[in-house]
Design goal:
Helix content is about 5%, strand content about 35%. It is mainly beta. It has one domain.
Length: about 100
């Protein structure tokens, strides 16, 4: 399933329905993000508290969480490679279904 996300969320615009911008595909390495299995659940936040945004993408199948660091800027985000969220040496998962 291809990941589509509302551009206003990335830009920090009030997500109230009257203010939503048209959805856009989020790219990684110039291609739309494909989560392989099931539905995507995107979320953009400063997860490490270092002032840098990270795109977190959960996938329904297998409950894996992908972390895409923003290698662009806050106003012009760019996402490249991802790493799965890990706990110790294992890929972390969340309940699915």
């Amino acid at each position: 399933m291809w990941l589509c996300i509302v551009a206003s969320v990335l830009a920090g615009v009030d997500p109230a329905p009257a203010h939503l911008a048209p959805s856009v595909r989020i790219l990684a390495r110039g291609k739309p993000i494909n989560v392989d299995v099931g539905h995507a659940a995107p979320f953009v936040a400063d997860l490490k508290g270092d002032g840098k945004q990270v795109l977190l993408v959960g996938q329904f199948g297998e409950g894996k969480l992908r972390l895409y660091p923003n290698v662009g800027t806050k106003t012009d985000p760019r996402f490249e490679a991802f790493e799965y969220l890990r706990v110790g040496d294992k890929v972390a998962t969340v309940p699915t279904g």
